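Before relying on records like the one below, remember that each one covers exactly one chain. Contacts with other chains, cofactors or solvent are not represented anywhere in the record.
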Amino acid sequence: MENKRLKILIIGSGGREHAIGWKIKQSPRCGELFFVPGNAGTSQIGTNIPIKAIDIKGILEFVKKEKIDLTLAIPDDPLALGIVDEFKKENLRIWGPTKRAAELEWSKAFSKRFMEGHKLPTAKFETFRDFTEAKKYVEYHSLPIVIKADGLAFGKGVIIAQTLSEANEALENIMVKKIFGDSGNEVVIEEFLVGPEISIHALSDGENYKIFPTSQDHKRIWENDTGPNTGGMGVIGPLPFVNKEMMKEIEKEIIAPTLKAMRDDGILFEGILYPSLMLTKDGPKIIEFNARFGDPEAQVYMRLLDTDLLEIINSCIDKKLNEQEIKWKNLSACNIALASGGYPGNYEKEKVISGISGAEKLENIIVFHAGTNLEDGKLLTNGGRVLGISATGKNLEEALEKAYEAVSKISFEGMQYRKDIGKKALAIHIYFGKIKTNCKAMDDIDEISGTPPNGDPEEDEENLLISTCDGGQDVYDDREDREGK
């Protein structure tokens, strides 16, 4: 592309989109910046346009009218609806995977068959379209068991059934009562995996790829990974317990073969491939594929990225990713979610938010907006996850300490957040090529060390436990707590 300042449109309204916009804005080639539909935070760095993220026709009309140079398709909804395909038909420049490539995310049955067909490591599974056959299968399967509606289901399509009664109820709700509509025409039933869950992001131009540092989200609403799943209550990165050898294994066994398999199937994946992995005693296994940046993982990546994001995206679109160097700051980062009272269930909106300016006066703090709205000069809550408090530090302990200090400055009625983000990750150790964890409850972040109690792997091996350090197989789709689609 010629070296000019670009008019850019970012699709989405969450903390992820605010963070990506914040990073894009730093590029010398960023001209006017627009968000569809955006939030109160994005309005501070660009212009919000009141078009829903799933209104493909409306977005196309806006892009043509405003002569937008580049559109970033970030959320899963428009990707599943084929927004990239529609833009390419019109010869409009857009970043993101096509509808067929994004099927890895929007169809769980397709994704599992793809993994099985290409011998990618994942949980054992079966798919069913017949309710009676599905019931018969779970009757003879060990518990707990994971039941997934095939299609997108507003964050409620995955059920971890602890009992046969729960499994049968889930199947009836999905397949008979059709609580998720056509998304429940088919179900995936799979074994429950145990181990720490991590997030891997790989940027691909269809031929080449670059792997990002590791990160880990905390899905459950309450401390010690209890309570219902959410869109993510906090994320850390890079992970202190994932070493170079493990990353080489993940690249060799998962990232490289996945992208090659897609090419072999005639599908070029262009964008972010984001597999959620479980580090089991048998090695890393794929829980699910996502075809876009995670939220809140993106917030941490944007704080750590030390290369022009706009430059990276353009090299990806132009299939020159192999020529693009991507640098990362030698820091740790975290992002703590502040959520509305009642979330992830029913919650009230329009609660006045205070303290953000005070929080951002602290060193290395950036507050990313998610469910916020400006009304008559007041900043109000407008979603389940309201804000993301991000911090960087020379290590994870320092980043977390800074973030929680910033959290203490902010308030709104009903505000809730987890006080243990990153604690378990700091206690995970790798010995003898196996995942070992020491997940004892600790009251103070400063008390957590990166070594076993005695510092001797042989002496302490008996004390290290294999455990789920992020609540087991937590799969959540965050559409329901995003506003203004």
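The chain is about 30% helix and 25% strand.
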